[in-house]
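Weekly puzzle thread! Below is a chain. First person to post its structure in token form gets bragging rights.
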Amino acid sequence: MSTKLVRALRNKSYQQRLDILGLTSLEKRVNRDLIEVYKILTGKENIDPAQLFESTDSNYNLCGHHLKLHKQPCRLDIQKYFFSQRIMNEWNVLLATIVDALSVNTFKRRLDEHYRNMEN
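Winning reply:
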């Protein structure tokens, strides 16, 4: 955890360090990334999805949703952490009921419910 690199905050909890440094938790950052992927893939952003993602081109019925992405193998570590690569595993395991949302707000609400249910 890079927040522990700040000496004065080492004895604080993770949440306290985030609050003091004005940072968001990893879970919230992943949520924001998933929201952005949803907006790109559903045409709600003015970005061509083909520039960032390669969709699965299988003709058979896949478990999950119809917007699954194909993850290319990465030769370099830097490629693994690029937005379009690091988010794919999280995106591909989402339920169809989440991904099939008609609006961004519905997607956000369903995503939040999904993570709340995972905690319980």
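Puzzle host: Confirmed. Bonus trivia for everyone else. The beta strands are 54-55, 69-70.
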